[in-house]
Automatic annotation (TrEMBL):
<dbReference type="GO" id="GO:0051997">
    <property type="term" value="F:2-oxo-4-hydroxy-4-carboxy-5-ureidoimidazoline decarboxylase activity"/>
</dbReference>
<dbReference type="InterPro" id="IPR017595">
    <property type="entry name" value="OHCU_decarboxylase-2"/>
</dbReference>
<feature type="domain" description="Oxo-4-hydroxy-4-carboxy-5-ureidoimidazoline decarboxylase">
    <location>
        <begin position="9"/>
        <end position="163"/>
    </location>
</feature>
<protein>
    <submittedName>
        <fullName>2-oxo-4-hydroxy-4-carboxy-5-ureidoimidazoline decarboxylase</fullName>
        <ecNumber>4.1.1.97</ecNumber>
    </submittedName>
</protein>
<dbReference type="InterPro" id="IPR018020">
    <property type="entry name" value="OHCU_decarboxylase"/>
</dbReference>
<dbReference type="Pfam" id="PF09349">
    <property type="entry name" value="OHCU_decarbox"/>
</dbReference>
<keyword id="KW-0456">Lyase</keyword>
Length: 170
């Protein structure tokens, strides 16, 4: 069960990796964050987690993306209950959008995946479905390089939120 920084620091290495994978599904990331323990406090762990996302190679980012459902879709069956719950909460605004917005999100998701080859990733927490759709439309015009930079930034934001949740620092 998740807890405070003492809990994370006390876990055996592989158990820490497994817990951290619920925050970001890159094994490289989870191993790096776990290996950097002990952390003096939750803020230090969160900062290290964000820095480690920013250092990931693109294949490692793609591994992390594989755990994220499309905006408006249900969490993937292979996710842990914690990840599925977090994903539902993060996407709650999209889940309650009207049918027209959901249809536009679905079409936009497909156009995005056709263009970039991976799921559209955005920190959905605190954003309405309309805001997410607007951002999706803007990002479809990005170059591949610019979009990779944006995806890594969004992954860092999501990871920051999830590490804070894992450590009860919300």
């Amino acid at each position: 069960m998740a807890g405070d920084i003492g809990w994370l620091n006390s876990l055996p290495p592989e158990a820490a990796v497994q817990e951290l994978l619920t925050c970001c599904a890159s094994r490289q990331w989870a191993q790096k964050v776990a290996a950097s323990r002990p952390y003096p406090d939750a803020a230090s762990a969160t900062a290290a987690a964000v820095a480690a996302v920013c250092e990931l190679s693109w294949p490692d980012v793609e591994e992390a993306l594989s755990a994220h459902p499309r905006i408006g879709d249900r969490a993937k069956a292979e996710l842990s209950e914690r990840e599925a719950t977090w994903s539902r909460g993060e996407q709650s605004a999209a889940a309650t959008a009207d049918a027209a917005v959901l249809a536009e999100l679905a079409a936009g998701n497909q156009a995005y995946e056709d263009r970039f080859g991976h799921v559209f990733l955005i920190r959905a927490t605190g954003r309405s479905a309309e805001e997410i759709l607007s951002e999706l439309r803007k990002r479809l015009a990005h170059s591949v390089l610019d979009e990779r930079i944006k995806v890594q930034s969004e992954l860092a934001d999501i990871t920051r939120l999830r590490v804070r949740k894992l450590l009860g620092d919300t």
